[in-house]
Amino acid sequence: MTLSMHGPAAVEHQPPTPAEPRSAGYIVGPAYDLLVFVLSPLLAMAVGLLLFEQPLANLPITAGGWNPRFSQPFALFFIAVFTHAHLVIVFFRSHANRKIYDQHPLRFRVAPIALLVAMLTWQWVFVVVGVLVVWWDVYHSSLQTFGLGRIYDVRAGNSPLVGRRLDMLLNLILYTGPVLGGVNLWEHAKHFEAFARVDAHSLASLGQALVHRQPELRLAILGLGIPLLLAWIAFYWRESAAGRYRMPRQKLLLVMATGTTSVVAWGTLSTGEAFFIMNFFHAL
């Protein structure tokens, strides 16, 4: 998208307005924000690492006589319930909020029903959605940090457009980079095999191709990620020195905490630990 100096680009260089003294830049308050937003990735990593050292993590959860075949380790059962609980809450926050609900009538009324009908009547759509949702979750989760960072920018008195693209790119690379370059790539890539159900064997082989090319993929991620991180630091350093931007410490800590947790979890830990940690702080 091309920006003119009379459009968003001009807004990007407006001097920051005074921050709201009432909140001191926090969304709710210092203790709440640090626990639930800013440092929640590090909290999730601590909880996950401690839990998976305990026998409780592998304690089988069963459904008794209702479903004798059901059995899940406690840690995975808990994170599945916790993750789905946050989806239920989000449904009420969107559909029960009349102001938001009426802003997007097609998205909330027509699109979900149309997609469900298509999935139930056309196997191609069912398979595509099943594969897409795995990667959409990665994208969606990375933008949670981006969105919180933009809120902290506004709370600090910055224009919401300053550094927007850089923030989005950095958060995408901090979350998706360790997925693509780390030890848990196959757990995401294997879902492409579902395309074999509709005889799309070239698409079904994409997961194997990704894993086979992971060394080159890892080099590409580092080649893109390191310069992007340096560009992000340089940009905000320059804007701050010129008086056009005020870096919220909450945003800086949030990016550092999320990036560190993503690299450690997706890049080095087992699949169960990684999914527990990343989904725990996201749902929290």
Characterize this entry briefly.
This protein is an all-alpha fold.
Relevant terms:
two-stranded antiparallel ribbon; disordered N terminus; 284 residues; 14 helices; mainly alpha; globular
Round the Cα radius of gyration to an integer and report it. 21 Å
Average the pLDDT over all residues and give the rounded result.
90
Low-confidence stretches: 1-22
How do the strands line up in the largest sheet? 1-2
Instruction: Work out the helix count.
Output: 14
How many strands appear in the DSSP assignment? 2
Task: Please give the largest β-sheet.
Answer: 2 strands, antiparallel
Give the total of domains: 1
- Strand portion: under 5%
Q: Could you estimate the helical fraction of the residues in percent?
A: over 70%
User: What is the H/E order?
Assistant: HHHEEHHHHHHHHHHH
Instruction: Give the end-to-end Cα distance, rounded to a whole number of Å.
Output: 35 Å
User: Based on CA inertia axes, which overall geometry fits?
Assistant: globular
Class from secondary-structure proportions: mainly alpha
Describe the structure.
With 284 residues, the chain is mainly α. The chain has 14 helices and two strands, in the order αααββααααααααααα. The chain has helices at residues 8-12, 30-38, 40-51, 74-95, 98-103, 105-121, 123-155, 164-181, 185-189, 201-204, 206-212, 214-241, 249-268, 271-283; strands at 60-62, 71-73. It has a two-stranded antiparallel ribbon with strand order 1-2. β1 (60-62) and β2 (71-73) form a beta hairpin. The longest helix is centred in the middle third of the chain and has 33 residues, at 123-155. It starts with 7 loop residues before the first helix and ends with a helix.
